[in-house]
Structures are given as structure tokens and as C-alpha cells.
# Entry
Amino acid sequence: MSSWKDNLIDIAPYVAGEQPNKTDFIKLNANENPYPPSPRVIEAINSFKASGLCKYPDANAVPLARAIAGRLGLSEENIFIGNGSDDVLALAFRAFFNSGKPVLYPDITYSFYPVWCSMLKIPYELIPVDEDFNIRAEDYRRENGGVIICNPNAPTSIGRGLDFMREILDANPDSVVIADEAYVDFGGVSALPLLKEYPNLAVIQTFSKSRSMAGMRIGFCAAGKELINALRAAKDSYNSYPVDSVAIEAGCASIADEDYFRETVGRIIKTRDRLTSELRKMGFDVKDSSTNFLFAAHPKYKAPDISAFLKTRDIYVRFFNKPRIDNHLRITVGTDEEIDMLIGALKEYIK
Amino acid sequence: MSSWKDNLIDIAPYVAGEQPNKTDFIKLNANENPYPPSPRVIEAINSFKASGLCKYPDANAVPLARAIAGRLGLSEENIFIGNGSDDVLALAFRAFFNSGKPVLYPDITYSFYPVWCSMLKIPYELIPVDEDFNIRAEDYRRENGGVIICNPNAPTSIGRGLDFMREILDANPDSVVIADEAYVDFGGVSALPLLKEYPNLAVIQTFSKSRSMAGMRIGFCAAGKELINALRAAKDSYNSYPVDSVAIEAGCASIADEDYFRETVGRIIKTRDRLTSELRKMGFDVKDSSTNFLFAAHPKYKAPDISAFLKTRDIYVRFFNKPRIDNHLRITVGTDEEIDMLIGALKEYIK
# Structure
């Protein structure tokens, strides 16, 4: 006898960073920004005309698309907005990768990619990064149904330049190439200047990291009109209104405050560089980071042990129990005060 | 030669009600609530502590799940929350309908169902409603991979009682049965009391209609734990954080204000019943509505012509150019003032 239970979804979901069930701890495990969003964002929400919420939001979040396009020197028709960049990425996989051929991405990268492929039944091929965790552009010269490169990459924190993306694009004129740039504002090099040359390039960014708006769920894709139209068709086949009216106004306010954006990003970069040098003094191998997190391993202490010790000090960092990176920690750059606490705790542990 | 263009998504998306590119018109085409959300919702947004937006929202919107569960006399583990009920429905199709057998639903119903089936490659079988547009429970006694019933149904506005849903559930112990209750608060009969008896029942509701929060994107599913867990797995395989932190607080505020909810719903029902009787006086055939809209046809005037005339008076109603219903209009119940304008315009046209 078949049962309704037999027909339920059977899939291994993405596992996010641990959310401890308490409030007083230092959370360096989800790559969140430690600073609040721009005061203009706060003002936009707290003065939002909520009586209008009885109406549906703009289906394409056009006011926000226009604001982003204006900042990037593009047209609003080149911008697609979704409910965080995870939503945009999931729609992009569905909209762009329909060839039946394997999509290529690095073996060490954002761990949601295989989940989306599995969900959407998209075949994929993992391309190993080199022993220093660098993505090699020459490895992406093979038949494929699409390419996605997280740049700067996570959890490695390593960023690559425009020549690298150009090499991948030149090798793949018949596939859509996605540049997942969630962390690019912290010192990475964006592929945005290549959009005019490559109609098969999609650049995906988020307001969750550099704009301190993880709680508001805004991500976007910048691309040529054909790719944007495919994303809109995918969205309109799933959920017509993914971005709410408050998020649209709050996002516009964030874009309007470029000074605040630069200042907080600059502050995080400064703290990151200080943490990098402190960790290296303690003997850690730390990759040069182009992100708001560090990827670090210690030759004498095991990553899960360090992570477990830090938890006893109410400090949460990210450890991935996965091949190749199971002795590394991913440490989000918090405030200077948080990072001082982290350094203090590590000095206790690492003699 | 294959091109990246060949691999883009190819699908006919859901088409929402027209959004005229002007501001001064009467919008009765999207089943929106004409009244603002509760003053408590407005207060919750305008006093929201937006500095916390740098952190991700609660992945399962637990505070809101708890509030809804409390109102419905359920546990928070029986509630799944998504980015509007379209998001919840799309995830439910993916989470529940994996048998490979056809999912059953009426030929006249919410037109997003075939879009989701097409998107997710779920086979489906349309079951004709009778000539008065009634769904017949006995038609759902056949092999299937799931059943979805919009009750009250859209665009017909017809609601059915608990015996009807029980008959469908009794005939389908081996399938998940979804009750899509987007409009139930306007006088329909909810299947919620059946949840304890039927672990294969999922009841899906929205804050977009009766709670005046279409712009905030909140929908939910109430069901047994096994179905809720399947929905969470589907969500965590797509976008871990679909509901933002502002929406969670605003939703809680709406649930807290039961008086306002009852008052505005009551006002809409009163206006609806007045409009029904006025339309019937003009010769319209109007179904008895259990929703915030009417489904009406006129024996002498064609629906597209009436709709076109109303547009010249800046009044937008919904016309579906589809078999069986292409002489019907779906008219959202607005404020009394808006409905007076509608009645005035119709009286001009229908002599």
C-alpha cells in the first residue's frame, strides 16, 4: 500500500550557521555585518506609510531596481530583485541551467549550490580548487551547462580579479556564467564592468552583508535583458511578489546612503586586517581575505577543538565537517570589541 | 551550434491583475483589502528596532508561528510560514506531490496551480466543476498524487462546508489534500478543525486578504508535524530565510488585534452583500460569495465589454479570457465609496 508519506520531499537541505538558543553571545558564524544598517534605512522603516500594505508590492520592485541601476550605471531593465540572494540564485539556477549538461563549480564553495542542483535536478560537476584553495580559470574549459563562480569565494575568502572572470567567460560563450558576489564589497573585484561585453554573464549581489540588511532579505542580479527576463519568468512562475513593500523602501534608503556604506565596509576591512595579523602571530594559516570573514587553520590545534573551546567562551565561529576543509574555521569579522574577545579567548587556548 | 539562449527557462508564467501605470483609479482587480492593516501593525513597523536588521531573521519565523498557533489552538510545530501564500503553496506542491501520479484540482480555480505543476513537472488532471461552478466532492474519488481545493474557490467565490472537505479527505487517505483558504475569513468554512483527524491535510491561509497585508508577504500552512517538516525541508533547500524580520513583527501585531480583524472583515462582508444585491437588480447573475470578491455575468452584456467600459471610468475589475468563464467578471469588494462609484458606472452602461 502506498501512503501519502511516501510522496513527501526527500532531500538534504542546506544547513545554516548555528543559532544558539540564547542572546548573550558573540556570533561570528553567519558572516553577518556587526553594524546596523544606515540611519536612513532605519528612518525609512520607522516612517513607512504602512496603511498602503493592503496593496501588493510592485512585482518587480521597480523603485529599488531603479536605485540600484542608478548606482551601478545600468538601466532598471538590467536589474532583477529577489528575497535575498539565495532566492535570486535559486531562480537563476532554474532560469539559466536547462541544458541537461553538468553545471560547473568549485568543490570548495557555497554549499547551497549542490542543494539547488539536487532540488532542480540539474547535473553538476565539482571542479577541485588547487591545494591553496584557488579556483583555476583553465579548469573551466570543458563542456558544461553553465558555470557559477563565487567571487570572492566562500568559505575560502579568496578573491580573484577581472582577468580571471574574463578568462572563464571567454572559454564559455555558450553557457550562462554566474558571478556570485555576496562578499565583493569587502575588497573583491566585481565582474559588473564585463556586463556590456558578455550577454551571458549574470552578477548576483546581496544587501545582507555589506549593507547590514540580512534581516530584510534583498538580493539582486545585474545582467543583460535576456537573462533578466528569464529570471522574471522564473519568478512569475513561482511567487509573483517576493520582495515586500517595506524592503523596497528600506533598500532604496540604503542605496541612497553611499557614505555610510563606505564607512562601515571600511571599518570591517580594518578590523579584518588586524584580526588576520593577530591570528598569524598565533601561528594560524590565514588566507588573504577579500570578504568580511577569515578562513584559517592552525598547524597544531584542530579546528573542531578550537571551535568547541570558543563556544565555552560564548563565541561562535563556523566549522565545516567536510573533506579538504575540516581543519579550517570560518570566522566572521565582528566589531573591534568582539574581535578583541575572540583574540583573548584564542590566546588562552593557543599557548 | 548551441547557445546559452537555448538553455533559458521556457514557461508561461502566472499573470496577475493589471497594474495600471497611474495612481488615481479604483482597483478592484487583485482582491486586495481596501482597508489599512491594524493600527498595531502600523505601530509595529514604525517602532521596529531596525538596527537588528544586520542579523538574519528567525529561519522559521518562530515568534509569528507561535502567535498564529496560539490563535488557532495549535502548537507552533504545526505552523509553517512563507513569503505570502504563493510561496507556501509552491513549496507545498514541491514538498507533498512527488508520487508521479496526477494531482487533482478543479478546471476553474486559482490559475497558479498549473504553473506550479508545469514548473515542478508534476502531472495534473483538471476536474470540471459543474455547470453552476460547484466543485463536486465525488469527482475526487480516483487515483491521484494529491488533491488541492481552493475553498472558497477563486474566481468563483463559492465556499463549501466541512462535510464537503471531509468527503474529499475520506476518499483520499493516501494523498496529501491541500485546502487553499486564501479567502476563508470572509465567510467560508475552514478545514482547520479537521487537522486533528487527518494527518494528510494541509490548510494554507494568507495575511494578504483579510489582514490587509498583501504588501508584507505573509502566508502560512497549518498541518501535522510530518507535513510541516516536509515544508521546512523544501524551504531549506531553496531559501532559508523567506520571511524578513519586519514581517515577523508586523504579522504578530496583526494576530494580536482580533477586534480590528473582525471589524474590517465584517465591513467588507456588508459591502459585498450590498453590491451583490445591486448587481442582481441590474440583471447580473452573481454567485453567493464567501470571499472578498464577486463572480458575476450579465445575460445581455459581454464581460470584456463591461470591463473595457469600466476602464474608461478608471475602474479596474478582472476578466479572464478563458474557457467557461469568459463571460464573467471577478470584482473585488472595495470600500463603500468605491463600490458606489462602480454601481454608478454600471448603471450608466446597463440600461
The first strand of chain A starts at residue 26 and ends at 28. Chain A has two domains: 17-37+259-349, 39-256. Chain A touches chain B through 90 residues (CB under 8 Å).
